Amino acid sequence: MMRFGIRRVILFTTNFAVMRDFYRDKIGLEIIEEENGWADFDAGLIRLALHEAKFKGAEGPFKLAFYCEDVEAGCAELTRRGVKMGKITRFGQIELCDGQDPDGNKFQISSRR
Q1: Residues facing 98 on adjacent strands
Q2: 10 with 16: CB under 8 angstroms?
Q3: Bridge-partner residues for 95, per DSSP?
Q4: 64 exposed, middle or buried (CB, 10 Å; 0-12, 13-18, 19+)?
Q5: CB-based contacts of 95: which residues, under 8 Å, 6+ apart?
Q6: Rounded to whole angstroms, how far apart are CA atoms 34 and 24?
Q7: Which of 25, 38, 57, 101 is deepest in the core (most CB within 10 A)?
Q8: Backbone phi, then psi, for 42, in 5-degree steps?
């Protein structure tokens, strides 16, 4: 059975620069990666990511992201377990796939380390 571990919590925001500055300058988190409305912070055992949203509520307030080395196999296994999963998306070397829990909360499996 494939195991999934939380790698990051993604916060969606319409105030990207303000939120980035808050978590960097006030909370003191180090930015590991930043590009085009995305900032990934080292938050200890997991990462905190900010993702710019075009409008409030576009993606929801947050998304849990689970690491999965083989996203295609992970998505297939979760689907077999009865989990509602979307299509696999690729961004360069990164693969990801969104799903929903029974309450409708979005989560993601991703090969992003």
Answers
A1: 108
A2: no
A3: 90
A4: middle
A5: 71, 72, 88, 89, 110, 111
A6: 12
A7: 38
A8: -80, 115
Place of tokens 């905190």: 48
CA distance 48 to 22: 13
Residue found by looking up tokens 């989990």 in the block: 83
Dihedral of the CA atoms 81, 86, 88, 90 (nearest 10)? -140
DSSP tag of 113: -
83: its two tokens: 């989990």
> With b meaning 16 or more CB within 10 Å and e meaning fewer, what string describes 80-110?
eeeeebeeeeeeeeebbbbbeeeeeebbbbb
pLDDT tens readout for residues 63-95: 999 999 999 999 999 999 999 999 999 999 999
The pTM for the full model equals: 0.84
SS3 helix, strand, coil % of the chain, rounded to 5? 20, 50, 35
